[in-house]
Amino acid sequence: MNAFQLALRVLRVDRRTRASAILTMVGVAVATGLVLLLAALPFATQAREQRAQWQEPYGYSDEGKSSMLVNSAKDYFDGKEIVRVDVALTGSASDLHLPAGISKLPGPGETLVSPELGKLLNTVPGNQLGDRFGKPVDALGEQALRYPEQLVALVGHSPQELQGSGAHALTGVAGTPVADFPDGQAKPDGVLALLAGVGIVVLLVPSLVLVASSARLTAARREQRLAALRLAGATPGQVTSMVAVETGLSAGAGALLGLLVSPVLHGLATFIPWAGGTWLAADFSLPVGLTVAIMVVIPALVVLAGVLGLRRVLRTPLFATGGHQVKPLRWWRLLALPAAGLFFFTAIVTGRHSSGGGEMVLFGLFLVVASAMVVGPWVTSAVGGTFVRIWRRPSTLLAGRRLREDPKGAYRASAGIVLAVFAGSMALTLLPSFESLSGGGRQYVDSALYADVSPEKAGAMVEQANSKLAQDGVQERAVAVPTVYLSKASEGQHRIQRTYVMTCADAARLTRLGISEKDCKPDVGLYAPYEFDTSQYVVEGDAGNDAVTKPLGSVPVGRYTLDQDVYASYVIEPTSLPAGVQPMDVSIVVPTTDADREMVRTALASVSAGSEIGSRDQHLYDQQQTLGDLRRVTVIGLLAAGILAGCSAAVATAGAVMDRRRTFGALIAAGTPVRVLARALRMEAALPSLVATIGAGVVGILVGLGLFSLFSEGDITLSPWVLAPVVLGVGVALLGASVCTPALKRVQAEPLSDE
């Protein structure tokens, strides 16, 4: 009988081995499905960006004869982002290769809109949204959208409307001459690719721990069976082949099951938003070669782990059948964590001053995670020694003896929980700190909308915007705010200070610099956070070193208290601006209310021909969206890791009972109450997990502090939520320990002669 036939026979006649194989198969299926999903995320983001290349101006081809003018900007409605692409045909339409999902180019006054934007246009008055674009003539297909619910408008213009280019040639909008639509290869989202890699580690390890715990359900019986075969004359190769086949059958079946389940996971993933929207089902596709590699590597790792566990049986089969002396764990294991931490924080310090330090930081992070596998068993053994010394009940002594005799096996149930708590504490340390860094934006008040235009067009555009506002019944009016710069030659350095040309009353109403109406004085011409001698300063219209300057002269300076959330800026009264200064930057600013906000935005958009309309909440839009994505990913990752860790802890606890069926059966037969044994099992499963979980939480917080210092020198912000992973880990450990009572009752119900 060959190894394959023998493995099949064992699976067919041994119910416990069959149960272990089924659980192993489920664990491998979970691991395979998760890896296939996470590995597909970078390719999914790449597919997204490939469809949306035409929405980004930098992807267009500028080689060859110019065929059209293109400009891309972001618009907003009711807190939702709208991508607006303005095009004007300058050559032959037959020379263009239209992207998938775009049936034709819109002509002047026409627009192509995405289905979701089309629905909005049909339900919202034109003076709030529709007047920003031309007449809708067709819909964009989903192959032209980054995600299905994306709001996109492809707006047609005449070439005259989009003439001009350069940073300061803003006639509302400046089109860039291009030869054709983009046809290059898009790049995946780097942030999600990094998170996918971290997720593979954070979720794969608990999955493999679950597989290992499932395999341990029949570890003692398997060792006895294999040792008997060795004593009967089986060669090490035959025993190894039998185990490899037995493990390979369940691992291979689990990998195939994971492959079959992966479309379901991909379908569920399409509903999880990222970067503003959900996904198309076709986004989650992996190259065939990578899929085959994953399907081979994961079962191979499981088989390798099973074969490596045979070393004791192959070398000393008598020890496997008759017991063996456990070697005590040495104190030097404790040095692993400080050494890894020292390397990690050294990499952090050096990484701040070098561009290539990121790899060393990641390697240091890996060492910190790996050190838990070295320190954890020693901590488990130490907890067991404490139980033995202070025991007052039989259950305490039994638990302590178990932890002292097999600390590696006892820690195995906690390994997944420890990693989940570490990752969660690290993430919840970083997130609040990154949230504290969000902010910034222009100096205008939150309710103001503004558009940057060319100085030559500013006056006419203000008149047109105010006419539109009056027509729509809006009380507020647009104000043109030029920007100039005050400079003073100091020790050979050219230092400049941004200065807004506006009245003090407008500054108090439109800016968040800190100027209030009580700061306004009739004899003051310049407002600043501090007083200075204006006669030593000159005024220039541009920030360039070769800009034309005019002496400011003696101008009375009024002080105001600068708001903490803005950079220091000056305000100069228009009457105090020296003659001949030509500002290069002008913003049209309009304050709004919740009732007229979209009408004001539409009025500005209609006169600026595609120039981006800004506000502070739009400036913070990307920051808040990224933070929301990170929060969502963190919650999902913690829940998945917690579930996997709980399952592995429960299976490991059940495996501990199965491994000691003979011992527990004898104790029960001798009159030991099941509740005493159950209490001992709960203590040996839960208390080491509690200690390790608290330690993992502390280490996770420290690692999070180190990573944050790599990105920012700001103050760290600790939230009470940083304790959530520790609480979750303790709950999972207690849940895993709760399976010991049913397992013991199962042992009690079976005759001792079976062992």
Automatic annotation (TrEMBL):
Keywords: Cell membrane, Membrane, Transmembrane, Transmembrane helix
Location relative to the cell: Cell membrane
Superkingdom field: Bacteria
Membrane topology value: Multi-pass membrane protein
Membrane spanning residue stretches: 21-44, 191-212, 256-276, 288-310, 331-349, 361-388, 409-431, 633-657, 685-710, 722-744
Keyword Cell membrane among UniProt keywords: yes
Pfam short name (any one): FtsX
Record bears the keyword Membrane: yes
Domain ABC3 transporter permease C-terminal, first and last residues per copy: 199-317, 639-746
Descriptive protein name: ABC transporter permease
Organism field: Amycolatopsis ultiminotia
